[in-house]
Amino acid sequence: MWEALQGNHKNVIKLLSENGAAITSGDVGQFALTAVEQNNIDLLEEIAKYGGDVTLPATCGTTALHTAISAGNTEMVKFILDQGADVDKPDLHGWTPRALADHQGQEEIQGLFENWVTENKKTVPTTPKHLSVPYGGKSIAKYNSEPTIAPFSPSLHHDVAPPRRRRADNFQNSLVGMMSVASTGKNASVFSIP
Asked: Is the pTM of this model over 0.70?
């Protein structure tokens, strides 16, 4: 399908489409990137029409949106936004479309982003303060996951003695202990055979 679209072979496109062909595999991001590089909005629209996600990054890491911004092509930027692109999603190199437009001084595209963000602002779900579940006419409260242990304060614990450390030289049954006993001659019974 991509080859037919790129070559503008209308009859082949029609035949493929009638038989269920779609642009769902291959480097769809690269296909969209090619359309933007060729300044061909019709090709970009055809890619989307036949199932291609024009918001995907190409294997090189950049997206059609980033390339359209760099070219200053507001029409393509708007089309890609309408296809669901995110103005705050960074590419492989860490550039968000919004930051790229700002960096390149693309004022018209920056304005387009501001309008798009305002129109498509997603509401963040909030959690109620007191969670409860109805149960048999009563309400059972859920536990909050906040910590209940107060932070350590040295002024409150000045009279508490630190824990005693265990002696580190208790190694009579170890190889080191046996060797040290043998060298000092203290307790030779360790080496005696019953």
From this structure: no
